[in-house]
Specification:
Structural class of chain A: mainly alpha
Oligomer: homodimer
CATH topology of the largest domain in chain A: Arc Repressor Mutant, subunit A
Number of helices of chain A: 5
Strand order of the largest sheet of chain A: 1-2
Helix content of chain A: 55-70%
CATH superfamily of the largest domain in chain A: Winged helix-like DNA-binding domain superfamily/Winged helix DNA-binding domain
Strand content of chain A: 5-15%
Largest sheet of chain A: 2 strands, antiparallel
Shape of chain A: elongated
Number of domains of chain A: 2
Order of helices and strands of chain A: HHHEEHH
Radius of gyration of chain A: 19 Å
CATH architecture of the largest domain in chain A: Orthogonal Bundle
Distance between the termini of chain A: 12 Å
Largest interface: A-B, 29 and 29 residues
Number of strands of chain A: 2
CATH class of the largest domain in chain A: Mainly Alpha
Chain lengths: 134, 134
DNA sequence: CAAGTGTATTAACTCTCTTAATACACTCAA
DNA sequence: TTGAGTGTATTAAGAGAGTTAATACACTTG
């Protein structure tokens, strides 16, 4: 299902979350389909069940999965996680915008930058943020 | 000059940076005036000189201080740190705005929120961000 | 009830971060 | 030139948070 990268310095659960997010977001898993059980995926990846559990819990909080105790975890409908992601992002953006205002940045400057960001569509001037793996 | 709070869980150097930032930003220290030497302030606060050194280095990177080796550290002109702070903030804001765009948030939504933030002047809906000490 | 599932608790382990000890380098005045 | 002041670099010790694992508990279904 997914593959862990041992050269990656990040914690395992974080790696799992990222890869599963992508898998679901890209449509690689159908809505409502059953995820592997905590134990089976743990055996599969040779990690502790609690590590899988942690990843699943985070994915659930982000709206990617829903869980029924005793039954299993399932892939949530797209609307779920897309809405959640956008609302979290908006909240974060507003918070930072307030800080920018308090730091003395004018509305005009932000207005202009906002326009600039949207006039170019792709993620330009990447710098360090590039993602290149699975 | 400043006072450390031992109930504060944050590292000492971080606490020092915050308090000195405020002291300088509030005009409590005159431009060009000499800061206490690394060693004397260390004795004063009963911490290691390296800890003071670390705080000074950070403050220098933020433009609050400038240093002449062998002479001492001095309070930088206001323009220095104010410009630096605003440009760092703007950069961060643009980065997050790109992410928001990529997450699917429309320009209109951000536009509206931007307006809302600036129509109210004070830091409202604070929640956890409140600062109440020295 | 048995075998599957998720969940909670506790502890060991690792590793980053903070802080300290110490030595080095520069400036200035006596 | 030398000594007492200053900032700077290197190394290591110590503490602490975060990650992972071991284990037991609880729920669902055939």
């Amino acid at each position: 299902m997914i593959l862990l990268d041992y050269r990656d310095k990040r914690p395992i659960y974080e790696q799992m979350v990222e890869k599963l997010e992508r898998l679901i977001a890209s449509g690689g898993l159908e809505q409502g389909s059953k995820m592997p059980s905590v134990r089976s995926l743990a055996v599969d990846l040779a990690v502790n069940p609690n590590t899988v559990q942690r990843a699943y819990t985070l994915l659930e909080q982000e709206g990617y999965l829903y869980t029924i105790s005793g039954r299993g975890s399932f892939v949530a409908p797209e609307q779920e996680w897309r809405d959640g992601q956008m609302s979290r992002m908006l909240e974060e953006w507003v918070t930072l915008t307030r800080k920018a205002r308090d730091a003395g940045l004018s509305q005009d400057v932000l207005q202009e930058q906002l326009w600039a960001v949207y006039s170019r569509s792709g993620p330009e001037e990447s710098g360090a943020g590039g993602d290149m793996e699975n």
